[in-house]
Amino acid sequence: xxxxxxxxxxxxxxxxxxxxxxxxxxxxxxxxxxxxxxxxxxxxxxxxxxxxxxxxxxxxxxxxxxxxxxxxxxxxxxxxxxxxxxxxxxxxxxxxxxxxxxxxxxxxxxxxxxxxxxxxxxxxxxxxxxxxxxxxxxxxxxxxxxxxxxxxxxxxxxxxxxxxxxxxxxxxxxxxxxxxxxxxxxxxxxxxxxxxxxxxxxxxxxxxxxxxxxxxxxxxxxxxxxxxxxxxxxxxxxxxxxxxxxxxxxxxxxxxxxxxxxxxxxxxxxxxxxxxxxxxxxxxxxxxxxxxxxxxxxxxxxxxxxxxxxxxxxxxxxxxxxxxxxxxxxxxxxxxxxxxxxxxxxx
Length: 347
Prior knowledge:
By secondary structure, the chain is an all-alpha fold. It has helices at 4-20, 36-46, 54-88, 99-108, 121-135, 141-161, 168-200, 203-220, 236-260, 266-271, 274-294, 312-346; strands at residues 225-226, 231-232.
C-alpha cells in the first residue's frame, strides 16, 4: 500500500516544478525555487533502505538503474531525435546527437536537449542514491546524523564559495551534497515519524514554521536558487534552513490532504506519475507555443526559447493545466498498455 502523504508531497512538488518553469501566482507564498527539487530528494530518502552487504548494495544499485536510468535514456532517444529534427527546421533547442552528449552529459549537466532539461534530476537522483548506499553501512541513527552534518557542511561550502562557472565537477558535487542532505533528512523523518508526527502535524506547528520561514526572508532577503544551474542567491544558512522549513510545511499540508482523499484521487495520480510530467511538460509548453506561432501570435525566434510563454500573466493556468494534464494522461496510458501486455502474457 502506497504512502498517501508522500504521494501528495510528490504531487505538490511536481506542480511547483511546472509552475517554476511557467508562472507562480503570488498567493502561493512558497516560491518554487526555494524547495521543489530538494523535496524529491527528501521523499526518495524517506524510502531509503540500507543494504548490509556489498552484494546487496550491487543488487539494489542495479534495480535503481533499471527503474531510473532505463526510462530516462528511452526518453533521451526521443528528445535526441526531436532536437535534431527541430534543428533542421531552424529551431535551436539543444545539441546534435553525439555519444558524449547522449551518455555523459546527462550525468554532468543534463542540458543536452533543452526540451528534456527538467529531467536532469533523474541521473542526479541516481548519483545521490548511490552515494547514500556507499556511505551508509549500517542503519544507525547516530551514523546518519554524522553523515547529515558532513553533507550539510559540504553543501554550505559549495553554496557560499562556488558556482557552476567553476566547472562541471563542481556542479555535480554541489548537486550531490545538497541532494544527499535532504535525502538523509527524509530517512531520519521515516525513523522518527511515529514519535514526532503527533506534534509536527498540527496547525500551530505549521504557523510557527511559517513564521520562521518568513523571518528568514526578512533577515536574509531573497534566497531562492536554481540547483540545476548551481546558482544560489542567498547564503548557506538561508538556503538550507529555508528549504527544510518549506519541505516541513509541505509535509504537514500533505498529511492532511492524504487523510482526506481516496486512492483514486487526481492528486495521488499526479504524485504517482511525476517522472512523465517532469520529462514532458516543457515539450507541452513548446507545442502550445508552436500552435500559437501557427496563428501568428508567437514569433518564430521564440520557439527556440524553452522558457518563453505567451502573455504568461494571463495564460499561465493554461500552460500549467496542459503541462501537467497531458503528460499525466500519456503516463497513465503507457501504464494501461503495459498492464494489458503483462496480463496477456499471463494468459
